[in-house]
Design brief:
151 residues, alpha+beta, elongated
Length: 151
């Protein structure tokens, strides 16, 4: 069970994963060793699954962000596994979800330009044997970045 201090610690780390035990202790009114032990416990219990740097896609030359809805033609375990392997092999696909509703999958992609998005769609995703059709949306502007999870 998480207590109020744990949730404050998780919220602080989502904003800045570089916080030291000393800084966490100051924020949480704990000693640095207590704050460090709490962080270790939350990592060991799986509340904290990792740490990563957030990169600016535009500075990396990734001018096009989009979402692709994928509709499968067949839904067997072999087709799903093959599709999952393809998704995991493509760096342009940064997130993928299985969905309820009309589409079977929703893919979040970043590409250098429209030509690269077109290639991803027509040379990689659509030729996959399990794919029946796709529908893509290009992001015009992102109103809110991936925010911290509510704690």
């Amino acid at each position: 069970m998480l207590d109020a201090t744990d949730t404050r610690l998780l919220a602080a780390l989502q904003k800045d994963a570089h916080l030291t035990a000393h800084q966490l202790g100051e924020l949480l009114n704990l000693s640095p060793s207590q704050a460090g032990r709490r962080r270790q416990r939350l990592e060991a219990e799986g509340y904290i699954t990792g740490y990563a740097a957030k990169l600016d896609p535009l500075k990396l030359g990734l001018q096009v962000q989009g979402f692709i809805q994928v509709h499968l033609s067949t839904h067997g375990p072999d087709q799903s596994a093959g599709f999952a392997r393809m998704v995991n092999a493509r760096p342009e696909i940064t997130s993928a979800w299985t969905m309820t509703g009309e589409a079977d999958y929703l893919l979040h992609v970043y590409c250098a330009d429209l030509s690269a998005l077109n290639s991803l769609l027509h040379e990689v995703i659509l030729p996959h044997p399990a794919v029946a059709r796709v529908q893509s949306q290009i992001v015009m502007d992102q109103l809110k970045r991936d925010a911290p999870l509510p704690t």
